[in-house]
Write a structure and sequence with these properties.
This protein has no helices and eight strands. With 106 residues, the protein is mainly beta. The strands form two sheets. A four-stranded antiparallel sheet has the order 1-8-3-6, with no helix packed on it.
């Protein structure tokens, strides 16, 4: 099956407020087959939580996450447009971590 690249987002997230991945570039694309999230921080992890598209922000924290991305790590999520990924830095404060996200389309 041929795959194409969709939207790309570069951003930062702190340890107090989770952000929805790809929100700054228009949200989910139709025909999305997956999302790749890279943690660009060399010293902090990112917590990832999945939620239904359009739902309110889920609780995300050090004891409430679906995936963790270690420093300089990458996570590939095979999720369609029905799900959204939310991320939070493990800083526990206003200190931010950089990340990048990329959609994979059908």
């Amino acid at each position: 099956m041929a795959r194409n690249l969709g939207r790309r987002e570069l951003g930062t997230v702190d340890g107090l407020t989770a952000v929805r991945v790809l929100e700054d570039v228009g949200g989910n694309s139709a025909y999305r087959q997956g999302v790749q999230v890279a943690n660009c921080d060399s010293g902090r992890s990112l917590f990832v939580r999945l939620a239904a598209s359009g739902a309110s922000a889920p609780s995300v924290g050090s004891a409430d996450f679906d995936f963790a991305i270690g420093p300089r790590g990458t996570l590939v999520l095979e999720i369609g447009e029905q799900l959204e990924a939310w991320i939070l830095s493990d800083s526990g404060s206003v200190a931010t971590s950089a990340y990048s996200a990329l959609e994979v389309l059908a």
